[in-house]
Amino acid sequence: MGRPFKILVVDDSALQRRILRVMLTKRGYQVSEAECGATALRMCAADSPDIILSDWMMPGMDGIEFCRAFRQMSADRYGYFILLTSRSEKGAVAEGLNCGADDFLTKPVNIEELESRLLAGERILQMQEQLRENNSRLCSALSELKGLYEAQEQELTEARQLQQSLVPERFKDFGVGQIALMLRPSGHVGGDLVGFVPSGPEQVLMYAIDVSGHGISSALMTARLAAYLSPGHLGSNVAFEKTSEGYRPCAPHIAVARLNERLLKEICTDHYATMVLAHMDLRTGALSLCQAGHPHPIVLRANGQTEFLGEGGMPVGLISGAEYETVDTTLAPGDRLWILSDGISESEDTTGVMLGEQETSTILGDLADHGPRAALDALMWHLADRTGTEDFEDDISAILWHVSGSQSGQNPIEEEPIPAVGQ
């Protein structure tokens, strides 16, 4: 322990105390004396000993009462308690152990037996000291880890805010159509990204991206992809090409192929991404899109008919020279285009059954009377109700494009409040 063991000898006999003190001092112990239990308690409160040798039979407070009171005292380390007694019956031994004594010695004390008992006590005290030191180190390590965890939580919270800022505008009314976006990472940050880029007064570009994996590395790659599709500088946006009159969107499959090569050339990672890139002509309702491994975009016609667009396609960032296709269709007033991440169709209910694309389309059909923003809220309500939790295992993102009825003289669908889950 790095110091002499401190022993307190408690006995109403001055002779017995002196005999024990001389024997113990010769053996390197630091010894103090007390003539009764009350005095010993005051000494223990001032300076707790390592080992106590206490007589059982003493006037006033006997050894049993002293032991019990000693155990009730608060101390930063354990004290080894040995009772000295001429009683050897089993009932007396049990009584002493029950009150907190660690060992017994019969009187008169045999010095060799006393040494053996003290060595046993020293081993226990050394183990107690080592355990206390280890606990102290553990508490210090846990405190440090807590600080690191809190700092990481703060950084991840800020990262989440930064990632959410990549989608600064979640709803926009273009007159002939409305767009609503949803981005819900499964953790602090995720690998999903949705957005749109107005390209002149009569065109809009929409994109949905799902980077493989979860967490920080996926989020960093998502941020990089956002830069490739940034509306701030169309000259660096892979979905636009320069003309004599400025910049215009290129065919979706060309833009996706460019992005695929850019990823493979500039980013060294095992991550890849699925995506849908869609171009909408606001004048004619013409829609052109490219599907690259993302779930099929779903068109819900005003008459209730459902169409799945695309043939699947290859994810971006996997194979150089991958070829992609553009799919064309036309959206009429009342039609809706849904672009959803696989976190929706692959969500599982409480029995482990996935939602699937067909059931997803059924739910979307039930939301036809909701406005775009309310429809996204209602979709999340359905998912939480079905899975039994709002903490989804995968990132969830969605784009909803609704062709308003203004082209036929109708008013856009009004937004409706959606009740919270469980209401």
UniProtKB/TrEMBL annotation:
BP terms from Gene Ontology: phosphorelay signal transduction system
- Statement: the UniProt record of this protein carries the keyword Transferase: no
For this protein, the record's PROSITE patterns field holds: RESPONSE_REGULATORY
Query: Which keywords, in A-to-Z order, does the entry hold?
Result: Hydrolase, Phosphoprotein
Q: Which InterPro entries match?
A: Bact_Sigma-Reg, CheY-like_superfamily, PPM-type-like_dom_sf, PPM-type_phosphatase-like_dom, Sig_transdc_resp-reg_receiver
Q: SMART domains per the record?
A: PP2C_SIG, REC
Q: Which residue numbers delimit the Response regulatory domain?
A: 6-122
The 4-aspartylphosphate modification is found at: D55
Q: Which GO terms describe its molecular function?
A: phosphatase activity
Instruction: Identify the Gene3D superfamilies for this entry.
Output: 3.40.50.2300, PPM-type phosphatase domain
- PANTHER family from the entry? HAMP DOMAIN-CONTAINING PROTEIN (PTHR43156:SF9), STAGE II SPORULATION PROTEIN E-RELATED (PTHR43156)
- Please report the name of this protein according to its UniProt entry: Response regulatory domain-containing protein
Q: Which organism is it from?
A: Donghicola eburneus
